[in-house]
Amino acid sequence: MHDGATPSVFRNAAKLRDSMTEAELKLWEYLKTKPLGFKVRRQHPIAGFILDFYCHKLRLSIEIDGGYHLKSEQRIKDKERRIYLEKLGISEIRFTNHQVLKEYEKVIHDVNFNLSAGTLCCIRRGFLAERNA
After folding, report:
1. pLDDT tens digit string along 37-76?
2. CA pseudo-torsion sign 76, 77, 81, 84
3. pLDDT per residue over 85-114, tens digit each?
4. Domain with 39 in it: what CATH number?
5. Count of structural domains within the chain
């Protein structure tokens, strides 16, 4: 499911796969092993967005936020994006780069919880759920 992603979004996604952040690379090392049997894609285009990680079977997006996501204007954009994705039936969990790099086991626990829950509704159980509500 790409929900109308344009060729330029696909090109941007390919570029992002080649320039992942340290936190994205660290989490990808785990996600590419198909945790709990679920295939997860990286830098997956949907409409005008590129999801950091996406499990199509569960319609679950896993996002890793850099510091700019804490800025008020970016928080508004993130909320609008989340609302749009929810309308498509896609749940989202978010973590910061710091959380992935410094609290890795807790992040993996949260990811596994969401995968095992069969996330068919919006759980948003990531560390940042309270700021995105």
Report:
1. 999 999 888 888 889 999 999 999 999 988 666 677 878 8
2. positive
3. 889 888 899 999 999 999 999 999 999 998
4. 3.40.960.10
5. 1
Q: How far is CA 125 from the centre of its chain?
A: 12
Cβ proximity of 48 and 5 under 8 Å = yes
* Angle made by CA atoms 68, 69, 73, in degrees to the nearest 5: 90
Element (DSSP H or E) covering residue 36: none
Packed helices 104-116 and 22-31: angle between N→C axes, nearest 10 degrees:
50
Domain-embedded: residue 1 = no
CB atoms within 10 A of CB 9: 17
